[in-house]
Queue: 2 jobs
Job 1
Amino acid sequence: MINNWELANFMQSSASPDDCPHICESLPEHGHENLDSLLSPYSHGSFQDRYLGLFFPFLDLINWASGIRGVHFFNWARTFGCCPELFFAPKTEDEVIQIINLAREEKKKIRVVGHGHSPSDIACTTDFMISLQHMNKVLEVNEETWMIKVQAGVTVRDLNEKHLPKYGLAIPILGSVSDVTLGGAVNTGTHGTGDNYGTMSTYVVELELLTSSGQKVRCSREENKEIFLAAACGLGAMGVIITITYQCEPAFQLEQRRFPSTLKEVIEHLNLHIKSSEHFRFVWFPHIDGVVLWHSNRTKKPITKVTKLQQCVSWFWNYSIGYYALEFFYWLSTFFPSLVPTINNVFYNLLFTQNKEFVNESYKLFNHECLFKEHVNEWAIPRDQTGSVLWKLQEWLDKTPDVYAHFPVEVRFVKEDDLYISPSYGQETCYINIIMYRPYNKDVPHERYWAAYEEVMRSAGGRPHWAKAHSVTATELRQMYPHFDTWCQVRQRIDPIDMFRNSYLDRILDH
Ligand SMILES: Cc1cc2nc3c(=O)[nH]c(=O)nc-3n(C[C@H](O)[C@H](O)[C@H](O)COP(=O)(O)OP(=O)(O)OC[C@H]3O[C@@H](n4cnc5c(N)ncnc54)[C@H](O)[C@@H]3O)c2cc1C
């Protein structure tokens, strides 16, 4: 059954081009089955998130596999959207094949959408959009090798909370949120942090995908290796990934230590920090010198007990102050931008200057609260460039006093890999993520900050995160990735009719 988080992404009646500059400007001409109009009173923000469940039985009567019209799609941050001509939610492999055959006959493009979390138009299309939200089952579990075979529409949250605990397994590394599908996370090279841990794509053992001819292709390091190296971080360009065999590990707990420091200290001792724990990350608060470090390691220690009173206190600091008050103050700063450094300073001192230690299940500490809607930009650079990039960014902000940057600037470390277009291909990598929040969905100027950041990242040999909005095209990508042309050739071979292209791919491919 469709869940309300997905509906929150897919059906927003309040869509207007003013709301979101990147949304397509008109609905398909024959949008007679317009679910938006049916749901309109219930499709606003948190009310929708909480109450749309009332309509589930009704929604389930719709034949999602035959395609519906009039669906508006927005990504999570509501920064990009589109109006697919037909939206499909098939339940079986045969249904996916039928959709592919229909698209081929009608010369339509197809885009699979996961959970719509990518902060770019990578999941957008004006032709056929397929959601695998019903294809979310666990198919096989090998308790000896710790491998699982799942349908690609399964969410990482369901894996963490529902499926893997039954088998005493866990995913070795996660990004900040688990409200993403495994298919989506793998396709964009979603990463966490850890000296010896690759992106989530690197734990893929085998993929089964349906190509534009409707054929099923199985690929792994042993079988169809080229396709595997192209599809394990493949931007949805190789076909519909229907199953993923994934390498897990026995369920584990993490012991996490958090403490404050300064940018100077962390850069001076960067290698020591990276090597001294399994999962190290830090965030820097622009306009001030403060940073917060997190070191996490696997542990057998018992989970930290938290009393009801401690829960209330923590809710007060993390949500009433760290979320609601912060959103209000950042909103206020849209009228008085020079408040931003003070806000960064006050919230740093209020929330992040005490040392903290926790033990908890792995996914509860890998994931963290990403607060409200935001613009983000993230590139990967060779690890030895980390310090110089951060100094350059700080220098640029210092000498550009009319640009104000929100916190955090998040810095994480990922092991090198060999997937053709993984940003960590062939190099130990540092990812630097910058943010400008959109308090109460209000847009904030970020273009100059973005341009300066991208210039610094480019000059350090950077590569953009595929899920995020970027302006890099084929000529540059060819210089960034030694195997970019191989990836393009595999794509051309497997999808000669360009069924799985969209405007995002048109920008990065030169023919
Ligand atoms: C709050 C937030 C926090 C985030 N934190 C991190 C982080 O810590 N680290 C990080 O690296 N990223 C992070 N991201 C980015 C996120 O992990 C990626 O955008 C991820 O791809 C989202 O998964 P999704 O299921 O929403 O995929 P979507 O955004 O829906 O799709 C992503 C791509 O995958 C393709 N795709 C999805 N499923 C299939 C399939 N079955 N077959 C073929 N193609 C498919 C789509 O066509 C599209 O190209 C974050 C994003 C948000 C909004």
Job 2
Amino acid sequence: MIGKPTTQTPYPGVSESRPSWLDLALCAQTGSAFFFPEPGSSVREAKQICLACEGRAACLEYALANDERFGVWGGLSEKERERLRKGPARTPADRA
Ligand code: SF4
């Protein structure tokens, strides 16, 4: 599944400032298709790659800090990062 190594990240804009975690990024070896799939497509393969990536924590931190809305970052999908940003679900009892 992991293809020919490359020095480019599949993430537009990130390569210009080149955070250090990109040196560990497994996605740089696979291309963007796994990480930015068509709407409604599975992100399972991207998440599996992320699980083996040593840059995962820093990648997720970067995505949250920069409000990245699209694609898989740090092993989390767009919806998973949105839930993480919003925090735990609130119940009526929490608001009382
Ligand atoms: S955690 Fe995933 S998206 Fe982030 S750098 Fe690693 S492989 Fe890429």
